[in-house]
Design a protein that fits this description.
This protein is mostly helical. Helix content is about 50%, strand content about 5%. The chain has 45 helices and 9 strands. It has a 5-stranded parallel β-sheet with strand order 2-3-4-1-5, sandwiched between helices. A two-stranded antiparallel sheet has the order 6-7. A two-stranded antiparallel ribbon has the order 8-9. Helix 16 links the parallel strand 3 and strand 4. Helix 44 runs antiparallel to helix 45. The chain starts with a helix and ends in a 21-residue tail after the last helix.
Length: about 1050
């Protein structure tokens, strides 16, 4: 049995022929019978129903029995065949008619429109079919990935079968001769009644098909509504806003686009939007030769104006779609990141807001998990775009500067190519811009290339790359339209600049021609030359010399600009460029940048520099833009009555120039003394902020109590530098290390500015140093010099920061090694206090105000790394007689649940000369170690003291000042071993472990001569028994 889908094209063709026949009859016969007009109208209505039925069958969504549909279709064919005979020309036999015959191949010729081509909003143009609008919405409502996946395979098979049959179908027959005059005159008498009967049959068959479709419409619409509920999260508006806030990346494309919009110049970007291909792209793309696909790649050399063009196209799209159903994303090198995830997060959130904050369930699940993943986000993008498709709108997407995403760019390119080529995203038009870089070209062409450029397409109506395996349209910026746009740009820039009005019109025209002729397609090159000429416009000789010797490339242009900077201003310029190029400097405003750039400027010239001077020196290398909001500050700031600005590189190529390597070994780099590297920038950043801390308060207005924004910047960035990888860099580079050392001294001015708990929590590393405090005058056990006190304070700060690598370098520095032995001993003996409540990470092993030394602090906090460094630097325990008791004061601390660290600490102390048996105490360290049944501790003490019978003084002092005595304090070590019950962590085998340790400790004690003291002998009575 034939498939209904294969019959429909033939029936539609028959409808066309019947309609044409009756239309011709009506036009040639005055007062034609009314039945002819009704037949003509009915055939058109039937055509619309058949189109709807065909579309339903393509997607496999008709649930009515196919046998009933097939029967109705066969009846329609018979009826139409009979109707066609009624208006057939004389002499046309049955063999030429389109009546159905099992012996003849059906003519499948019809205007069948592929799903990949444009379709009108309605499947047919007949106003009488009321079902059309519903079916159009139904066919567009592909809102579920499951829906697409389930039916794609069946649909592809059906479409391939239809394509095969269409390919083998002969061309339609030539137009037949019209009915003769006699036939037209006889028709009302002999054919009218038969036509009325056939019309009745045709109406009945069309009604049956309509009933089937209406039933399926109800079922399918219910399924669609259910599908929407299945994929849309059921949450309130407040929760939707919260999810979209979580989804938003740390970028603002609206602000960035506004900045690029301001750079647009009239009549320089319209060359693309005026083309036929642009209209094709807006309409969903074309597969015709020379037509624009729905995926456009615009590529060009650096400085060709791709980003400004992208901003212009974004504005054009927004006007076209009324700012609904479009999104855009600008990649940027300053972010130094793979842009894939931020890109997907931005477009999903942006489009969701445009359609009533539609939140797919998969996005809600991502939010609940608190993670981002490419595949789920891409699925969310698909679901949201299909919501636009349901209401008859395309989605437009523009992605600029793909080459500025951090390498490798494969993830971003894979996502873009999938959106641009996958049939699931057929309703999305995508445009991307980039340089013609090898990895991008290979991804777009689907091949591995060995270099060279894509074919340059000069025609206004550009075609896609013919040898590409990725269907897209590649548009080069190296075309005649761009050249003409540059000429327009030059004229407008010269005419707008008031300084150039000092030249004669003839001279201005000559300058315009010289610049346009040498631009080589680079808007950026022209902007730089105009900036250079603006500086020397009054000196005609210099202007002419510059025009006669124009640089060929952007790099040559940048080199000339830097060479023109005055020698005394170069230190400022280099520092400013380095900080602007940095991705980690954290400079929030141009005023802070200017203060930071004074790092290497001589003191007497600092007052000359401000934002205006920054722009004057660096010219077109940088751009200064206004900030819409004041930078956030941790300090209360009032009366800041000025507009904040931000300085950044004017173009990505400036950074590339500054970081460019030498073309030949041994040759200078293109940027000369301004050349930069990531390491150079990191070093300079830290020198700037730590030197800024050393100058804290200097030059601050007397009436300003709060730190300046530059001082706050130094505090914030230095606090960040004291963490993670920056620590290694500080220790590695001596110039940075020298800047950091003075800032670690307790009591420094920047530490005193942290006056409340909120500020201390914000600057977590500096907060730790606030725990250090000097003891009140007169409470020091020894007097030390201010210099020695500073060295002690710095080493204590390093303990608080847990930074042994810095301490090692400090102790090995000639400045410390050249100190006298007396001075070094004073450093170890110097006392201070620590407030352990300042930071939650500090162990609570002592109270605030308790006298502390460096060695004591290391032992109490079990900082074995620092203790070893100090001992190697000459520290000893001559003035720390109770250091062993201090080591045993908290044997099972938070970091030492099993006592292993305490054992290592005890061994280190005893091997380095600590007294194993401090005199004058109620019990000895040996008794203390035995009562814990710690074999290692006992062995270390016995190795040094060699006496297993040591006991304390009966009336001695408690080593920790306690008034409570324990029974074991006055017992022999052997007796303690046999009776003690240590408080070890509970476990299933705790009793066996205790028993085993008890035996091992007892064996050790006996090996070292432990003997229980014998009881006192009974004294003889003084009374003599006389009877004896």
């Amino acid at each position: 049995m034939a498939e209904p889908l294969f019959l429909i094209p033939e029936i539609i063709g028959m409808c066309v022929r019947v309609a044409n026949g009756f239309t011709e009859y009506i036009s040639n016969v005055k007062d034609a019978p009314r039945v002819a007009q009704r037949i003509n109208q009915e055939v058109h209505t039937l055509t619309g129903v058949l189109e709807n039925l065909r579309m339903s069958l393509e997607y496999g969504k008709v649930s009515t029995t196919k046998a009933a549909i097939l029967e109705s279709l066969n009846n329609c064919m018979c009826t139409l065949g009979e109707l066609e005979k009624l208006v057939a020309a004389e002499g046309v036999d049955d063999a030429e008619s389109s009546s159905p015959s099992p012996r003849k191949a059906r003519n499948l010729y019809c205007s069948f429109v592929s799903r990949n081509e444009d379709r009108p909003a309605s499947p047919f143009h007949n106003p009488h079919a009321g079902i059309n609008a519903n079916m159009s919405s139904l066919m567009q409502a592909q809102i579920s990935r499951e829906y697409v996946d389930v039916h794609r395979e069946q649909r592809n098979f059906d479409m391939s079968q239809l394509a095969l049959m269409r390919a083998t179908t002969p061309s339609p027959a030539p137009k037949r001769p019209a009915m003769s005059l006699a036939a037209r005159l006889k028709w009302p008498l002999f054919q009218q009644r038969k036509a009325q009967d056939l019309l009745t049959q045709l109406e009945r068959q069309r009604g049956l098909l309509n009933v089937a479709l209406e039933a399926d419409n109800c079922m399918n619409l219910n399924a669609i509504n259910y599908g929407v509920k299945e994929i849309e999260a059921t949450i309130n508006d407040g929760e939707k806003r919260r999810i979209l806030g979580w989804l938003k990346p740390n970028v603002d494309m609206y602000e960035f686009h506004s900045e690029q919009h301001d750079k647009q110049e009239d009549e320089t970007c319209e060359w693309l939007t005026n083309s036929k291909g642009w209209k094709q792209w807006l309409d969903g793309g074309s597969s015709e030769p020379g037509g624009y696909r729905r995926f456009i790649w615009i590529y060009g050399i650096p400085g060709a104006g791709k980003t400004v063009l992208a901003s212009f196209l974004i504005d054009n799209i927004a006007t076209h779609c009324r700012a609904t159903g479009f999104s855009y994303y600008y990649c940027h090198n300053e972010r130094n990141q793979d842009e894939t995830m931020p890109f997907l997060r931005w477009i999903v959130g942006d489009l969701s807001r445009q359609i009533g904050r539609f939140i797919p369930k998969e996005l809600e699940e991502l939010n609940n998990a608190g993670t981002f993943d490419i595949k789920p986000l891409l699925n969310c993008f698909l679901v949201i775009t299909r919501q636009f498709e349901r209401v008859g709108k395309r989605v437009y997407l523009v992605v600029d500067a793909v080459d500025e995403s951090k390498k490798p760019r494969s993830r971003l390119l894979d996502v873009l190519i999938k959106i641009g080529t996958d049939p699931s995203f057929e309703h999305v038009s995508l445009l991307m811009t980039s340089r013609d870089e090898e990895d991008i070209r290979d991804a777009m062409t689907g091949t591995e290339s060995g270099g060279g450029l894509l074919p340059t397409i000069e025609d206004r109506y550009l075609a896609d790359t013919t040898d590409s395996r990725v269907p897209h349209t590649a548009v080069t910026m190296s075309n005649s339209d761009v050249m003409r746009a540059i000429e327009t740009y030059v004229k407008k820039q010269i005419a707008r600049n008031v300084r150039f009005r000092a030249w004669s019109p003839e001279y201005r025209e000559r300058v315009e021609k010289d610049l346009a002729r040498n631009a080589r397609g680079m808007f950026r090159w022209v902007a730089c030359q105009i900036d250079i000429l603006e500086r020397i416009y009054l000196d005609k000789d210099k202007v002419q010399e510059t025009l006669n010797n124009l640089p060929e490339t952007l790099f040559d242009t940048y080199a000339r600009i830097l060479e023109s900077i005055a020698p005394e201003e170069r230190a400022f310029a280099r520092t400013a460029l380095a900080l602007i190029c940095s991705n980690t400097s954290g400079i929030k405003s141009a005023d802070v940048l200017v203060r930071a750039s004074l790092h290497n400027v001589r003191h007497g010239a600092m007052h000359r520099y401000d934002i205006r001077m920054l722009k004057s020196i660096l010219g077109c290398l940088v751009k200064v833009t206004d900030l819409k909001k004041r930078p956030v500050s941790m300090f209360r700031r009032e009366d800041e009555g000025f507009l904040f600005q931000r300085a950044s590189l004017a173009h990505y190529t400036v950074r590339e120039f500054l970081f460019a390597k030498s073309k030949q070994d041994g040759k200078p780099r293109p940027a000369g003394e301004f050349a930069l590297s990531d390491t150079d920038i990191r070093q300079l950043e830290m020198q700037v902020v730590f030197n800024g801390l050393q100058q804290w308060g200097i030059g601050r207005p007397p009436n300003l109590r709060t730190p300046t924004r530059y001082e706050e910047h130094c505090l914030e960035m230095s606090d960040s530098a004291l963490r993670a990888d920056r620590r290694n860099l500080i220790v590695k580079y001596q110039n940075v290390w020298d800047s950091v050392v003075p800032c670690l001294a307790p009591g420094s001015a920047h530490l005193k500015s942290l006056t409340n708990e909120k500020l201390r929590r914000r600057f977590a590393k500096w907060r730790r140093l606030c725990a250090f405090d000097e003891l009140p005058p007169g409470t020091q056990s020894t007097s030390i010099s201010p210099r020695t006190r500073k060295e002690t304070g710095i080493l204590a700060s390093l303990i608080l920061l847990r930074w042994p690598e810095f301490a090692q370098k400090f102790l090995q520095h000639p400045h410390f090694e050249n100190l006298s032995p007396e001075a070094k001993q004073a450093i170890w003996r110097g006392e201070f206090s620590i407030d352990p409540l300042i930071d939650e990470s500090f162990p609570r092993t002592f109270v605030k105000g308790e006298p502390m030394t460096l060695l004591r602090l290391c032992v109490l906090w079990k900082r074995l790394d620092f203790l070893e460094l100090f001992i190697n630097a000459g520290a000893n325990f001559v003035h720390e007689p109770d250091i062993v008791f201090i080591a045993l004061s908290n044997p099972y601390g938070d970091d030492d649940n099993d006592g292993c660290i305490t054992g290592q600490l005890l061994k280190m102390l005893l091997e380095r000369g600590a007294d194993p048996n401090p005199p004058g105490h109620i019990y000895t360290p040996l008794q203390d170690a035995v009562h814990y049944l710690e074999e290692g501790w006992v062995q270390s003490l016995l190795i040094e003291c060699r006496d297993a019978n040591l006991m304390g003084v009966p009336n001695g002092e408690h080593p920790y000042g306690s008034d409570t005595d324990q029974p074991w304090h006055k017992r022999h070590p052997l007796e303690i071993c046999r009776t003690t019950k240590p408080r070890w962590p509970e476990s299933d085998a705790i009793e066996d472990q205790i028993s085993k340790s008890r035996k091992q400790v007892e064996l050790l004690l006996i090996q070292y001569g432990a003997r229980l003291p014998s009881p006192n002998p009974r004294r003889s009575s003084a009374v003599i028994n006389l009877s004896d």
